[in-house]
Design brief:
35% helix; alpha+beta; 7 helices
Amino acid sequence: MPGTYNHAEFSSVDAYHPVRDGLAGMGCGPIAIATVLSGYDINKDPAKVGTELMDTARRLGIKRTIRLSSMAKSITDNNKAVTAKAHYFKNYGSGKSGDEKLVYNELKKELEQGHYIVIYVGACRWANSNNHFISLLGIDLSNNKVFIGNKNKSKNKYEWSDLMDVVKVRKYNQGWLEIY
């Protein structure tokens, strides 16, 4: 298959059960990040990733929410084998639907380079709420479908989907993390 999905074992969260182990307390962000890290043979429990994210945010003086920039710093600082970079939709036009092609092209370029993506999406078939992170684990260039890692309380799975479908459900005021 032409593309970047390398059939890596995304194993660190396979034994993790979102309902039993508490998705609400853990958060989909740490779960998506742990999934990506496991593709680099960095097997961390999502709880450990969540603790690292919170510790970094506190150290940076961020009190109420974890921002993408602090998430990127935490991933890079705590996992020396990888680098994370924050991207914001506002940097790709206005962030509204007319700018979908800009976001699509940037995500495709990053996936073509073999980078993994943790992206913030709104209400959609992958989410149980209006705020959710999923991971993009590769792309099939023959049809521009991306391999999605999604662990949440009712949709605990991996699947192929069209990249434009992902772009259309992104949260306009948020962005994504590129991990390489």
